[in-house]
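Example record

One chain of 210 residues, shown exactly as stored in the release files.
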Amino acid sequence: MDGLLLNTEDLYEIVGEELMRRRGKTYRDEVRQAMMGLPAPKAYAVLIEAEGLTEDWLMLQRESDEIFEELLPTRLDVMPGAIRLIDQLDRLGLPRCVATSSRRAFAERALSIVGIFSRIDFLITAEDVANGKPHPDIYEASALRMKTTPERMLVLEDSAIGTSAGVAAKAHVISVPNRHTATSDFRGAKTIVQNGLESIEIYEALTRLT
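Predicted structure tokens for this chain:
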């Protein structure tokens, strides 16, 4: 979801910068990269350790949520090609879900604001599985809900951690880098596309699933 369907990675960057500014620090890119794609407790644990913060992850999350709320009404948007891709899934009659490290309440709200939530079959979050990304649990659970096997499932991922989760589940993974993840290690992906969700490789893979 984040950075693939929605521009929330851009917003998270703004939130992180403000969070660190309030503490007289800079939101370092290497820290942001290490946090990307992780469930909230692990992501904030990375930040706390890297910056020597005294707050626990729940306190940081609450503060981040407050900053985020100010951004959502005017800054949230879909990534280029997202709606066209969902339209294609409709035409092909393929099931689809969102499997995200974000919390369910936030994911439902964000996807609803941009009109995508009503167009997916279901949502699975890190709260629904024992182990978040990079473990395969979230994609294994997705396949189970779809009544298929991970090997028959196409996973689109913008982060290295998410790619690792899809690869570990033995799904067909296409990595879709954005400006935040362009230098990431997408080891194991079947394809790494360079034109976002508008890449022809994604549409060809979808056609092979029908």
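Notes: The chain has nine helices and five strands.
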